[in-house]
Amino acid sequence: MSAASPLELGDGPPRLEAGRCAECGETTFPLRARCPSCGGELERVLLPSRGTLWTWTTQGFEPPTPPYRPDAGTDEFVPYAVGYVEFDGLLRVEGRLTEPDPQRLQIGMPMEVVALERDGHVTFAFASVDG
Amino acid sequence: MDERPEIAIVGAGIHPFGRHEGVSGLAMGVAAVRAALADAGVAWPDVQFAYGGSEDAGNADTMVSDLGPTGLPFVNVKNGCATGGSSLVSAVRALESGAYDIGLVVGFDKHPRGAFKNDPADWSLPAWYGEDGLMVTTQFFGAKLRRYMHDHGIPELALARVAEKAYRNGSITPHAWRRTPMSTDEILDAKILAHPLTQYMLCSPGEGAAALVVCRREYLDRLPDARPVWLRSVAFRTRRPGSFEVFSPSLPLEIAPSPSVDAAREAFERAGAGPDDVDVVQVQDTESGAELIHLAECGLCEHGEQAELYATGATDIDGRLPVNTDGGCLANGEPVGASGLRQVYEIVAQLRGEAGERQVPGEPRLGFTHVYGAPGVSACAVLSR
Description:
Low-confidence stretches of chain B: none
Structural class of chain B: alpha/beta
Low-confidence stretches of chain A: none
Oligomer: heterodimer
Strand order of the largest sheet of chain B: 3-2-4-7-1-8-12-11-10
CATH architecture of chain B: 3-Layer(aba) Sandwich
Number of domains of chain B: 1
Number of helices of chain A: 0
């Protein structure tokens, strides 16, 4: 795992590292120096491992490189989905979805944080809780 | 509405949009400036100041090498999709200040083919955001639109109708890029680039230029042949905390109104007019869904009303709210620096009654333009005959 990854791999399920503002109470992701809403200081918090799908879309063409790092060992681009997952009472986080099929994605479906191996490094993604 | 508006557009020029091998963006810009000057009946040495810019095609102020180095203050503007709008707002404020009587606004661009490349560092984002494939503008369009359709009951057919109208209007617009009409079936059956958007529902980066000559009311005495269009107001806003913008790794639970809402409201207030008074409209249609969303964000219709508006032809050239009569970004492409001024060019043509085959019937009196871009900027204008 790259040092800059926001994924926290402990004993339990993978969790995402976020920031909670000491001033306004807002939670933001990823953790940064200052609160994007009020400029207050942020403290490091871990988000719950589960949420619900708030919205989604697909990536139907290979993104420009850089900044995109293509999957190693594959010549052909495989379309993927991305979405925002809502963590109850906190915020919505954008990430890749493990399910690429639009027919199997629905707003409101339960999702969980998972580790995703890409090109020799581990990043985060969201998977449907029901598989 | 104020019966004696202060600022007039007296010249409008455009270089055809599309792809122009071997022609630089700056050369297109110069062509648009010459066209605007000729339209106004103004000689270049009489222009007292200029604002202009491009995203990818060079510095506007170097145009003086072609136009003549008269010593005028020429400010380069680089503000993404709002480059044209920012230039226009700056020029209008310069005129309003009384510092100048007549000035020029120009926007031009020439982008490489394919999607825009963005560096996470330029956006204060971590490297993994780009490496993992999250830094693509089309994802924002698809994700915002998917949620909007869910919340307001918009069917996918409405998205196809937006694009169908765009190519139909583009087919009768001489300077448009995409001039072949397309059926809603063809649009819906095309490759999906960002669900629910197919390739024909998204505009492409392109090439083109547009220029305007703007002046104070008193200066019109020196331009007896001018056909002025009044710039009733311009407004320019950026995002507030929590608005849903491109490249947002997270969003708060409370989504704030888009800067389009603020800019449109301010433009109407300054003009002393309301959305119901408008006869012809330009809104940013980077993709089909954006046109639908922006109409409601600007107050021109209710959220959720769009599907019916498009099904009944209300937004057609002969409808009650003609939208993007030149085919918008979908048919013209999006040369970022030029796009916002293309919108104003089109409204000027419509209000003068000089839009030819695409002329809105019934002598439209009031027009509105809206540009929106990353990361949450919007500029709006209200114009009248």
